[in-house]
Amino acid sequence: MAYTADKPPLAESSEQLRARIPGWGADLDPADRPAVPRERFDPGATGAHWEFPERQPELQGWLANAFYVNQLYAWLVRVPGLGFGRSLRVTDDRVVDGAVNEVAEGVGRASRLAPVIQRGFVRTYALAFLLGAVALLLFLGLRF
Fold this sequence. Notes:
Elements: H1 14-20, H2 43-46, H3 57-64, H4 69-117, H5 122-143
């Protein structure tokens, strides 16, 4: 529907609707309502009534604390969960992070030792190669 500057028509009144729509509003008047003879309000006849029960003070503590569900949850789930989380944190700090830190320290020591071994001269590399070959031949010769 497109917007127009014209004002929308006002809603029809109840009388106009009754005149235009056959049967509209017929049940508004109890005299015209077809179900009036069948309508009864007798709560005893239907069983749909409510009597307030007697007070039960022994249940008051349980109801006030919502049957202690939160305390039970804390005892069964929260406390063990926190303990398990603490143990995981300790394991992470000591085992995982400890291993990473040890590897990092080993790499640091090796990097301090590398300049002593490697000077950049070819004769040093040739000597290392020769010593490695001699060590390999000795190992294989003594093994067999």
